Amino acid sequence: MLSPNALRVLDSLRVFERIRVKGYNFTNIAFKNEEEETTDLYPLGDEHRYGYNALRIYRQILLDELRSMVHESNIDINYGKKLSHVISESSTEVVFAFADGTSASASLLIGTDGIHSTVRKYVSPSISPNYSGALAITCAIPLSDLHFPPDKDYSTLPVAIHGANGTFVIAPQDIDGSEVLAGTQKKYPEQTREDWDRLFSAKDELLTLLSANKSGWPSLVRDALESIPKETLSIWPYYTVPKLPSWSSSSQHSRVLVIGDAAHAIPPTAGQGASQAFEDALSLALLLSYPASPSDLAANLGSWQAYRQERIDRVVTLTLKLNNTRLPKAERESLDKKMIWSSESDLKELEWLYNHNIKEAMSAGMI
């Protein structure tokens, strides 16, 4: 899912015009209670208020477009290499090794290698991802298999239905909305990466987990649980990355750095994972395009990180409040209302997130 701040980045790179009709465009996600009454609307986009609607698009479609644009610019992408470790770092270059025994050098090594980043182990060796204790279990279902109650308003999709079991999400994910992602989150013990892979492959076990306490859901959710194509079942363990002291190898020469989930992984509830990665990438590219002495690299990256971290911290706070809306009813009701997102108090606050313009911020000297 790409929100307005991400689409503004992609628009500045002429990507948005190539993908806008290749996904599902929408504005709000509706929050509903156990009686399937709409209790709130959370905006994920709005072209009138934020410049862009939200866009749900398959990752592969977006990647294919980005690769095509890279190819059109005569830039080569080398595949089949896996980073092993950093060999050395100087004031002008970094030398690194691949798993196949070969090595290479570059002026910078930028890790965009996700939550379990190899590059981060060099930048911040003491930092490891934290498991939240929650696991999202999802599947893909034809919209036609769902039976929307005629006496309930389901004119707004996606929808998050809150109940005693937690929250069940139904979100269109095809161009015409003919297929939906459906799922919920469950408490689940942390696994090794190998055991997560095993669980992903254990479709019968996932179906049992997803269907547990089925009678506690409204009829629409029960319909969804009766229609699951097992082969589409998937999982998303919610990990976060603790705040890094530095996103670059500041104890050396700052020639190695991390961005995206490698630097600040957060749960996907606010739909900001990819969006913040795009913000990282554009702002870093702009920073590196400015004339500067190599001796200024560490200081410039430090200022850039401070600028980015301030936004990440606010996204983390927003994500926590949204996560709390998805807790089982008893847990939700035990929290202070300020810890749960509400349009009554938080709607205007989203302007800082969606209306932010990276190029303008960089030009204005925010770093």
Automatic annotation (TrEMBL):
InterPro entries: FAD-bd, FAD-dep_Monooxygenase_BioMet, FAD/NAD-bd_sf. Residues 251-316 form the FAD-binding domain. One of its GO terms (molecular function) is FAD binding. Keywords: FAD, Flavoprotein, Monooxygenase, Oxidoreductase. It comes from the Eukaryota. Belongs to the paxM FAD-dependent monooxygenase family. This is FAD-binding domain-containing protein.
